[in-house]
Automatic annotation (TrEMBL):
Lineage: Eukaryota, Metazoa, Chordata, Craniata, Vertebrata
Organism of this sequence: Sarcophilus harrisii
GO MF, any single term: 1-acylglycerophosphoserine O-acyltransferase activity
One Pfam family it belongs to: MBOAT
Transmembrane segments: 34-54, 66-99, 111-134, 386-404, 424-444, 456-473
Protein name listed in UniProt: Membrane bound O-acyltransferase domain containing 1
GO aspect biological process, one term: lipid modification
Length: 493
C-alpha cells in the first residue's frame, strides 16, 4: 500500500499553475485554493474592464463573446492544467449533439452525455486518480458546465420541439428559437464570469447581457413606469458589488479562523463520541456545521460580485424603488441563518442549482418527480457515499417538517407571544436538523457518517419516521411542490 502524502506536500499540490507557489508558501494556504482565489480576483478586475471598455455601445457582440470565452479558457487552464481538457471535450461533444440532433431528442442526448461524462469523471477522480484530496478541482467547473449544457438543450427543445400551449410561463419565457452559433455556445459555457465557480444562468439572459439588452429587458419585464420612473433608468452595479465584496471579506475572515478551529473531524474524535453528553454533541455539531459554511459564502458571493461587476445579474426594482442585482445570487445568508423551517432554509441555499433541478427534472419527470429530483441532485454532486446519506436523510426530514408545519403551526398563531415562541423553537429545530442532515455531506465517507449518527442515536431519522407515520401529510400546494424539489446540499467550490 502506498504511503500517505505528507501534509506539506498536500498543502501545495495542484494540477494547475505553480506560479503562485510563493504566495501559497507564505500564507500557508493550499496552492489550489490560492489559484482559485487569484483567478476570481482577476476575474473581478477583468469584469470592471469588460463593462467599461468593452461595453455594448463601444464593441460588437462577437468581440464581447470572444473575450469572455478566451478569458474563461485561460482561467480554467491556469487553475487545473491539463485536467481542463475534460471540460473542453465535453463542451465539444455536446455542441456536436446540439447541431446534429433533432429538436425532439436534443435534450435527451445532451442530458445523458453530460451527466454520464460528469459521473465518470467523479468516479475516476476518486477511485482511479485518488484526486479527492484537493479542495478545488476540475469537477467543480465541470458540474457548472453540465448544468449549462443541459439547461441550454432543454430550452432549445422547448423553443423548437414543443408546442407553445404545452409550456409553462417560465419555459415559454426562456425557450430558444434559434440554435446558438459556436462562438455564442463557447461563450455561454466557458465565459470567465462563471466558468470557475458558477453560477448557472439561462442562455437568453446571458445573450441579452452580451448584446446590452439585459438591464432594459428586466426593467421592461417589471414595468419600470409603475415604479415611478419617467424615463428608462441606467442602474450602476457598483454599490451591489461593494456590498458583496464586504460579505466575502467577512466570510474569508471566518474561514481562516472559525473553519480551521472547528474542522469536521472533530465530530468523530474520542471526546465527542465517548464522553460528551447528548446535548453537548448537538451543540458541537451545530458549531462545526456553522464553521463549514464560510467557504461557500465566500466563493458564491464573490462569484456573484464578479458577474455584477461586468453588468450582469440585474433583477429589477424592489418595493422600495431600489435596484436589485440578485438575479444570479446563489444564497441569501440572512434568511439561511434565521430560517424557521426546513423549507425556508433550502429555498435560500444554492438557489441556482435548485432552479436547474426544477428546469431539467422536477417539471418534466413523468412520475415520482421528488424522488427523481433528489437522485439527480445526488448524482450531480458526485459519488461519495456521504452525499447519499445526506439526500436520503433529507427526504425524511423534508416530509416530516412539512407534516409538522401543516398540522401544528396554526395552533401558535392566536397570539404574538405564542408565535414568537414557535419561531424560536422552530429556528433552533431547523438549524439542528440541517446540521444533522448535511454532516455526512461534509464527511464524505461511510464510516465517519455512521459513527456520527450512532453517537446521536439516529434520533432525527427515528423522529422523522414517527412524524411521517403518525401525522397526515397534506397534499402539496404549488409553492410547496416547488420547494420540496429544491432540496440539495453544498456543492464544491
Amino acid at each position: 500500500m502506498a504511503a500517505e502524502p505528507s501534509p506539506s506536500s498536500l498543502a501545495y499540490r495542484t494540477t494547475g499553475s505553480t506560479l503562485l507557489h510563493p504566495v501559497s508558501d507564505l500564507l500557508g494556504i493550499p496552492l489550489d485554493q490560492v489559484n482559485f482565489v487569484a483567478c476570481q480576483l482577476f476575474a473581478l478586475l477583468a469584469a470592471f474592464w469588460f463593462r467599461i471598455y468593452l461595453s455594448p455601445e463601444k464593441t460588437s457582440s462577437a468581440i464581447r463573446h470572444a473575450f469572455a470565452a478566451i478569458f474563461g479558457i485561460y482561467f480554467v487552464i491556469f487553475c487545473f492544467g491539463w485536467y481542463s481538457i475534460h471540460l473542453f471535450v465535453l463542451v465539444l461533444i455536446c455542441y456536436g449533439i446540439l447541431i446534429t440532433s433533432s429538436t425532439h431528442n436534443v435534450h435527451r442526448y445532451s442530458f445523458v452525455v453530460a451527466m454520464g461524462y460528469l459521473t465518470v469523471c467523479h468516479i475516476s477522480r476518486i477511485y482511479i486518480f485518488h484526486y479527492g484530496i484537493l479542495t478545488t478541482d476540475f469537477s467543480g467547473p465541470l458540474m457548472i458546465v453540465t448544468q449549462k449544457i443541459t439547461t441550454l438543450a432543454f430550452q432549445i427543445h422547448d423553443g423548437l420541439g414543443r408546442k407553445t400551449e404545452d409550456l409553462t410561463p417560465e419555459q415559454l419565457r426562456l425557450a430558444i428559437k434559434v440554435r446558438p452559433s459556436f462562438l455564442e455556445y463557447i461563450s455561454y459555457l466557458l465565459n470567465f464570469l462563471s466558468v470557475i465557480a458558477g453560477p448557472c444562468s439561462s442562455y437568453k439572459d446571458y445573450v441579452a447581457f452580451i448584446e446590452g439588452r439585459h438591464i432594459h429587458m428586466k426593467l421592461l419585464e417589471m414595468n419600470w413606469k409603475q415604479k415611478g420612473y419617467s424615463s428608462l433608468p441606467n442602474p450602476s452595479p457598483t454599490g451591489a458589488v461593494m456590498h458583496k465584496l464586504c460579505i466575502t471579506l467577512v466570510s474569508l475572515f471566518f474561514f481562516l479562523t472559525l473553519t480551521k478551529a472547528y474542522p469536521v473531524t472533530c465530530l468523530v474524535d474520542d471526546w465527542f463520541v465517548n464522553e460528551a453528553s447528548f446535548l453537548s454533541r448537538l451543540c458541537y455539531l451545530y458549531i462545526v456545521m456553522q464553521a463549514s459554511k464560510p467557504k461557500y459564502y465566500f466563493a458564491w458571493t464573490l462569484a456573484d460580485a464578479v458577474n455584477n461587476a461586468a453588468g450582469y445579474g440585474f433583477s429589477g426594482v424592489d418595493k422600495n424603488g431600489n435596484f436589485c442585482w440578485n438575479l444570479l445570487s446563489n444564497l441569501n445568508i440572512w434568511k439561511i441563518e434565521t430560517a424557521t423551517s426546513f423549507k425556508m432554509y433550502i429555498e435560500n441555499w444554492n438557489i441556482q442549482t435548485a432552479i436547474w433541478l426544477k428546469c431539467v427534472c422536477y417539471e418534466r419527470a413523468p412520475c415520482f418527480p421528488t424522488a427523481l429530483t433528489f437522485i439527480l441532485s445526488a448524482l450531480w454532486h458526485g459519488v461519495y457515499p456521504g452525499y447519499y446519506f445526506t439526500f436520503l436523510t433529507g427526504i425524511l426530514v423534508t416530509l416530516a417538517a412539512r407534516a409538522m408545519r401543516t398540522t401544528c403551526r396554526h395552533f401558535f398563531l392566536s397570539s404574538e407571544t405564542l408565535k414568537t415562541a414557535y419561531d424560536v423553537i422552530t429556528w433552533a429545530s431547523t438549524q439542528l436538523a440541517v446540521s444533522y442532515t448535511v454532516a455526512p455531506f461534509v464527511m464524505l465517507a461511510v464510516e465517519p457518517a455512521l459513527t456520527l449518527y450512532k453517537s446521536l442515536y439516529f434520533h432525527l431519522h427515528i423522529i422523522s419516521l414517527l412524524i411521517i407515520l403518525i401525522l397526515p401529510i397534506k397534499p402539496q400546494t404549488t409553492r410547496q411542490s416547488q420547494t420540496l424539489n429544491s432540496f440539495h446540499n453544498k456543492e464544491k467550490t
